[in-house]
Amino acid sequence: MTSSKIKILAISGSTRNNSSNFKILKYISNYLNPAFEVEIFEDLERLPHFNPDLDTDNPPQEITSFRNKIINADGIIICTPEYVFSLPGSLKNALEWCVSTTIFSNKKTGLITASASGEMGHEQLLLVMKTIEAKFDDTTQLLIQGVRGKVNAEGEIVSEETTKALQNFAENFKNQFL
């Protein structure tokens, strides 16, 4: 019997173990079940630094594997912090490996920036994802400011407003597939 679940690749922009961004992706993954199969990609730090000379028909194996995960997913969710008013270098690196491809073109995408402030990082995430033609709109993107006070150590969302915002985001993301 083949799975009829919708496959989602969730990418945490944080390389920190058990980060708030990872916890948010776990929350969304649990919320989207049972119709969705969510894989959380946790290997950003294992991707080699982007080098246009290596971005050929035969890129490094880690890049081929990462790109195939995107290709095989029905949709993508990215949840990232903001570092120094920008995207984390590891996430930007991963996305740079996708610029020369069309793997994000019209791919249903949800974008979350969860950080202390996050405004500038969120703007940059939206710009990069528009550039690589990911499919998202105002209902499938979310900025969560002051995230450390909204997610506890156990991964529970402790802010009712944030819980509602994440559920609304997840419903809007899910509706793209229905």
UniProtKB/TrEMBL annotation:
It holds the Pfam family FMN_red. GO terms for molecular function: FMN binding; oxidoreductase activity. This is NAD(P)H-dependent FMN reductase. InterPro entries: Flavoprotein-like_sf (IPR029039), FMN_Rdtase-like_dom (IPR005025), NAD(P)H-dep_reductase (IPR050712). Residues 6-129 form the NADPH-dependent FMN reductase-like domain. It comes from the Bacteria. Signal peptide: none annotated. GO terms for cellular component: cytosol. PANTHER family: CHROMATE REDUCTASE, NAD(P)H-DEPENDENT FMN REDUCTASE LOT6. It comes from Flavobacterium nitrogenifigens.
